[in-house]
Amino acid sequence: MNRILLAALLFVLGCHAARGLAQSAPQPSLTDQLLAEGSRTLAAQARERGDAVRGAILFSTQSLSCTKCHAQGAVDLLGPDLTQVSADRNDETIVEAILQPSKSIAKGFESVKILTLEGRVVTGRPIRQDNDTIVLRELSDTNRVIELAFDDIDLLEPQTVSAMPTKLADQLKDRQQFLDLVKYLMDIAQTAQAPNVAASMHASRSTSLDPRIHGLVLMDQFGCVRCHGDNAAAPTMHASTPPKQAPVLTAAASRIDPHYIRRFIADPHGVKPGTSMPDLMQHLSDEDRDAVSTAITHYLMSLSKDPFKRGSIDDQSAARGRELFHSVGCVACHSPRGKDGDELMADSSVALGDLSQKYSVDGLSAFLENPHSVRPSGRMPDMKLTHWEAVDLANYLVSGAGDDADRRPMQTDPERIRSGRKSFTELGCVQCHVAEGGQTQQVQARGRADRYPSLAELNTAQGCLSAKSGAWANYRLDDAQRDAIRVALQSSAATLDDREHVVLTMATFRCDRCHSRDGWGGVSDQRDPYFHTTNENLGPQGRIPPTLSGVGGKLRSKWLRDVLVNGRSIRPYMNTRMPQYGAANVAHLVDRFATVDPKPLVEITETQDPKEARQTGLELVGNGGLNCIACHTFQHKPAQTMPAVDLTEMAERLHREWFYQYMVSPQLVSPGTVMPSFWPGGKAIRKEILGGDPNLQVGAVWEYLLEGRQARTPRGLQLEPIRLLADQGRAVMLRRSYPGIGKRGIGVGYPGGLNLAFDAEQMRLAMIWKGDFADPGGVWRSQGHGTVRPLGSDLIRFPPGPDLDDAQSPWIVDEGRPPRHQFTGYDLDDIGRPTWTYRFGEIEIEDYAIDSKDTDADQAVLKRTVTFTSKDKRNNLVFRVASGETVKAIDQQTFLIGESLRVRVDAQHQAEVEQSETGMHLVVPLSLPAGDTTLEIQYRW
Predict the structure, then answer these.
(1) Residue ranges in 461-587 assigned as alpha helix (H)
(2) pLDDT at 718 over 90
(3) Distant-in-sequence, close-in-space partners of 168: CB < 8 Å, separation ≥ 6
(4) 524-552: pLDDT as tens digits
(5) Using only C-alpha atoms, what is the Rg of the chain?
(6) Which of the two residues, 354 and 229, has the higher pLDDT score?
(7) Are 704 and 740 in the same domain?
(8) Quick one: which of 170, 249, 724, 913 has the most CB atoms within 10 Å?
(9) Can you give the CATH number for the domain in which 88 is found?
(10) Are residues 629 and 543 located together in one domain of the fold?
(11) Region of 550 on the Ramachandran plot (φ > 0 left; ψ -120 to 50 alpha; else beta)
(12) What band does 74 get if pLDDT is binned at 50, 70 and 90?
């Protein structure tokens, strides 16, 4: 009997052990699960149960990025155009291509690994080669094309591994998504050749300009026509755009340090390398240069009502300004800067010089807020900065002014003012600058033909175009610039056509720094990292300004004018802003674009019943049709996955012909777009709607979009929130992005109905609220790139920056991670409530919060216990407890934050109120002894 019981006991223990081993064994990945099923089974299931529309959307999402390598019409990407029929492609090989990409690599799409003589390793697909060079599409960055000379190659090895990533299916949520994706690829495989549409893949970026146009751009930059007008060159150069005017100087000495003005006039190229301001005194002695520059400075000071005041720098404002400078588009033209302020791309950027020596914060911020008041020619565009953005940017650009700046006040002298006014005229400053009278004084000096001959009469080997010194303007031109200007002068009588005027305007205003057109211009590889988006799902089109190739055939003239002149925008997800150059400077582009860019030639079948077509279009746009509403904004309401351009503005923006072409072949028209093709190869995915006729389906969608703001709401837009709630008696936690917190946000829902979000990037309590916990739909429906939305009510936010910091040298808050802080994790108590653990220098911190009930007041209370452990004594610390617009003391330990939050600090500590530009803060000064110190705080609201 005992043996039987023992055997039974051993059997039971063995079962428990086996179950424990099974539970601890890692779960197979989705790819492994699918491989176990076999390609034949999966292919049959996809054919029967897959949804091609959902698959088309998956094909274009950022998480899979299929369109980066398989764009329709592409010939030089890492993968083949899947709309082209392949004789050896069938349902099973499609499944295998995803799950086992290296099993069979398409011919011509093999990769090679190259070792250069310098030791550089490059892996990519060869897309072109000749006897001397090989061109690769790099595997690690699908946007990068590398050209290598065979003479520089040490070793070239063919690769047997596909460029297609392994375990790609693991990016999908589940098996059904895999079946949907395969079904879409099956539909593509069944299509015929792609339709012939009036579009092509754009050529690679080129920075070269026609020498004549380059010369005209330089002549505008240096203001040649200001002195050498009166011939055919002026109409040729400025048939569309007024000539450049130098800065208005009537109040220059109020915003610019007079000491800087004097030095700049005396030696413009030494003070600001790369300036377009010429040296007008190279023929004078050093003593005379100093005397003349001082006199002109006194003259300019006499024109300013207010004296120059340098002021102080706000470090927090400067930190915000640094972020603005590197995100809104300033660095498209000006050099990005390192942490020490050094210019990283000075040689390829528009010069700024040392602004810390030049401007006051007030002077620069006023200029940035309204640059056209000082530079009416628009070469410095209006970046649509708010007043406070301009102040932040000015603080950043002027930061560093100090010890070496000349602080001595400069008093004006009447005699020097008279002398300076005379020199200002005699040197020719009046030709370009407005100082007095509200206009330049070209006419006054033009009568001296011996000094200012017309452009047609210039000797291009002498004067400004020579490398010699003399009594003429010295622009420090290099040989290439001189040659380009000579070419422009020799052909100045020939008029430019509309297409050339477009290029000239784009080059003059540097539109090509952001926009490409016909293979020219566009964001350079070096500046690409500074173009950002608020939604990664949109891919490059969410952060890179759109191409202007064919833009006249794409956009309606009224909309194009609104963009160019009024700054209208449909891309709020793009951080880079569309600059404003002024109507007089760029409005002519509206008509020129329309002239040189014809509408696409497409076949359009007119609908016989617009009302019925609109109803069908409503069905197609909704989630029961093509599910456009899954990605596109509708009447400013965000979509499930990404904020693509608003559907209700499309018909107002676009020409119908362009819309038809784009819908059928989106990747061909706009390479890199995440817009899926619902008519691959000209065949409809939704064959049951309108007989599967692509023209009728696209026409129905267009008829629906013509309703604009009055269009009926499609199915699938308004989604019920996903409610994540604390279990009864147990806390719930979710690590994701939250509003105002980066990707390291950690939310906690307490069973008592209180909630908080902790910022593990900056070690702070970021927000608290009551009621239901959170809606994670923004994350789960957007492939992990969205944010969690707090539910409930009474949400209270706290500002960025670590709660614990040094009182004397706190971290200057930005969006990054404090360098002296480190998050080390968390521990959970028996009902799932976390204790955050983090470190500040050598100090270890445990931060634990629980929800409690104040029975006397019948109110929930959040009790927070923070324990500091220090090896040594540490003084001059401060712990931020809460922040708000107002902080009022109720008693020695209790404070009212804003109108509703009451905070109580334990009796062992004394809280203080601090005031800053961001509001008021309740803080606890800390002097920590060696060992443990505990701070207890209560929040009730």
Answers:
(1) 479-490, 498-508, 551-554, 557-566, 583-586
(2) no
(3) 31, 64, 98, 101
(4) 888 999 999 988 778 788 899 999 999 99
(5) 34
(6) 354
(7) no
(8) 249
(9) 1.10.760
(10) no
(11) left
(12) low
Q: Look at strands 793-797 and 789-790 and give their pairing.
A: unpaired
Q: How many CB atoms lie within 10 A of CB 38?
A: 12
Domain-embedded: residue 265 = no
Q: Which residue has the tokens 């079946």?
A: 179
Q: Report the C-alpha gap between 817 and 325 in whole angstroms.
A: 19
Q: Are residues 753 and 867 in the same domain?
A: yes
Tokens for 779, please give them.
């994350």
Question: Residues 19, 84: contact at Cβ < 8 Å?
Answer: no
DSSP strand E in 829-941: where?
834-840, 843-854, 859-870, 874-884, 887-889, 894-897, 901-905, 912-916, 919-928, 931-940
Decide if 638 is inside a domain.
yes
Indicate whether 685 and 785 sit together in one domain. no
H-run or E-run covering 263: helix 258-266
Same domain? 775 vs 873: yes
Q: How confident is the model at residue 443 (pLDDT cuts 50, 70, 90)?
A: very low
pLDDT tens for 811-853 read 988 878 899 999 999 999 999 999 999 999 999 999 999 998 8
755, β-bridge pairs: 749, 769
Q: Is 820 found in the same domain as 674?
A: no
Phi then psi dihedrals of residue 245, to 5 deg: -115, 135
User: What backbone phi and psi angles, to 5 degrees, belong to 512?
Assistant: -70, -10
CA atoms within 13 A on the CB side of 543: 16
pLDDT band, very low/low/confident/very high, at 742 (cuts 50, 70, 90): confident
Arithmetic mean of pLDDT, 764-776: 94
Are 858 and 916 in a shared domain? yes
Q: Are 757 and 862 in contact (CB under 8 A)?
A: no
In Å, the largest CA–CA distance within the chain is 128
Predicted local distance difference test score (pLDDT) of residue 401: 56
H helix intervals, 665-693 = 666-669
Residue 20 burial (C-beta neighbours within 10 Å; 0-12, 13-18, 19+): exposed
CA 775 from chain center: how many Å? 27
User: Are 508 and 241 a contacting pair, CB within 8 Å?
Assistant: yes
CA 436 – CA 303 distance, rounded (Å) = 8
User: And the tokens for 407?
Assistant: 């602080």
Segments forming the whole domain that contains residue 184: 35-103+167-190
Is residue 2 domain-resident? no
User: Mind giving me the DSSP string for 87-106?
Assistant: TT--HHHHHHHHH-TTSSPP
